[in-house]
Amino acid sequence: MAVTWQETVERRLQGGQSELARWLMQFAVSGSQSAMLSEHTWEPATDVYETPTHLMVKMDVAGLRPSDLRVNLDHDTLVIRGQRSDAFRNRATTYRQMEIMTGYFQRVIPIDIPIDSANIQARYEAGFLEIAIPKGQQKAAATLVITIINR
Q1: How does DSSP assign 2-39, residue by residue?
Q2: In this structure, what DSSP letter does residue 44 have?
Q3: For residue 88, what pLDDT is reported?
Q4: Phi-psi group of 73: left, alpha or beta (phi > 0 → left; psi -120 to 50 → alpha; rest → beta)
């Protein structure tokens, strides 16, 4: 069933201001109305913080397996991609409330400090992806794929 523009706006507003802000940012970045209407684009909640020795990234990706995720370092940018599917959505169902986002996502996190790119570690545990990026002496100068360890 097609969703009208008005229904989409009402659904997004019911999700709260932070969801509305993400939705508007998605439009500003993409410049397209179709990106705002897409049910295949979402952004998992992500924390980025520093410890004395690491830059840490923690992402809420419940329902995914490590094989559903891709983590790459591209010079000074960490790129996390994935896809969450929901087998139940294909059934004949009438939703009374729908908040769990599915589909493809991509998060791009700038790395603005010198790091030790050879020792980045990523692990998936209890629905969270945690990436530990050791601080180092130089900016990342390479593109590499980061393997995710399942705990």
Answers
A1: ---HHHHHHHHHHT-HHHHHHHHHHHHHH--HHHHH-S
A2: -
A3: 65
A4: beta
Q: What is the pLDDT of residues 101-141, one digit of tens each?
A: 888 999 999 999 999 999 999 999 999 999 999 999 877 66
pTM of the model: 0.71
Q: What is the number of alpha carbons within 13 Å of residue 105 lying toward its C-beta?
A: 22
Write down the H helix ranges in 31-135.
33-37
**Edge-to-edge strands, sheet with 46-50:** 46-50, 54-60, 128-134, 121-125, 148-150
- Rounded to 10°, the helix 5-14/17-30 angle is 130
One-letter amino acid of 119: N
